[in-house]
Specification:
Radius of gyration: 34 Å
Shape: elongated
Strand content: under 5%
Largest sheet: none
Number of strands: 0
Oligomer: single chain
Order of helices and strands: HHHHHHHHHH
Number of domains: 2
Number of helices: 10
Helix content: over 70%
Structural class: mainly alpha
């Protein structure tokens, strides 16, 4: 009986608190506006806005950096297959003469290939956020690829051509041109930072569709260009060429 009496007192206190709360709620509801504008705000409390930071209206724009890079590497391989020897048929007498002769042929072709690729993609509708940076990066990439393939074929024409194709295949899979790098396996993720096509693809994405920040890409490609020019001079052996 004592517990029941205590429970009834607690119940009475709770009922009183509930009554007071309902009274307060009634007063608050009376002051609330029930206009249609308030109903719209309650039903749709957020207003959404959309801003595109990257200008990629169609899939072709997204694929352009990758396909430009592939085209430039194929141009480098084709050039070294066609001009395996100098048109004159003579072998340069020194490494500096070799560099001069290759710059006059392979270097000019690399620049022309870059100009043709740049013009070609614009003829089919490509527009870049940063046109001059896009053009400069394409020319630099073409020179880098040409120097790499030229060095390999100068070292050994057949084995060098084979390694050039292997290098192209590795870059196709590791440059994140078709799929994000996270979707590739560990091997391709590991070699991605060491291959030039990774930087040409990411750099062209920056200049074509994004903010145009390509300092890292330009530095890496410039180092690779200088490195392979030096390696090409070392690979050329005037005495061996004269014997051949």
């Amino acid at each position: 009986g004592t517990k029941l009496t205590s429970g009834l007192e607690g119940l009475q206190t709770g009922v009183a608190s509930l009554g007071q709360g309902l009274s307060n709620a009634r007063d608050q509801l009376k002051s609330a506006s029930t206009e249609s504008k308030n109903a719209e705000i309650l039903s749709n409390p957020l207003s959404l806005s959309k801003t595109d930071n990257d200008q990629v209206p169609v899939n072709g724009i997204a694929m352009a950096p990758y396909m430009i890079s592939v085209a430039l590497f194929v141009a480098a391989i084709s050039t070294n297959m066609i001009f395996a020897k100098l048109p004159s048929g003579r072998h340069p007498e020194s490494r500096w003469a070799w560099l001069k002769s290759r710059a006059e042929i392979n270097g000019i072709i690399a620049v022309l290939a870059g100009i043709l690729v740049y013009g070609g993609v614009h003829l089919i509708g490509l527009t870049a956020n940063h046109e001059m940076r896009t053009f400069i990066l394409i020319i630099l990439t073409s020179l880098v690829f040409m120097s790499m393939v030229t060095t390999l074929t100068t070292w050994n024409s057949r084995i060098g051509a084979f390694f050039s194709l292997i290098l192209l295949l590795l870059q196709l899979a590791s440059s994140a041109g078709t799929y994000p790098l996270a979707l590739t396996n560990d091997f391709f993720r590991a070699i991605n930072p060491w291959l030039p096509m990774s930087y040409s693809v990411s750099g062209l994405r920056q200049t074509i569709s994004m903010t145009g920040n390509i300092h890292q890409q330009v530095i890496f490609l410039s180092v690779i260009l200088i490195l392979f020019i030096g390696l090409g001079m070392l690979a050329y052996q005037p005495k061996k060429m004269e014997e051949d």
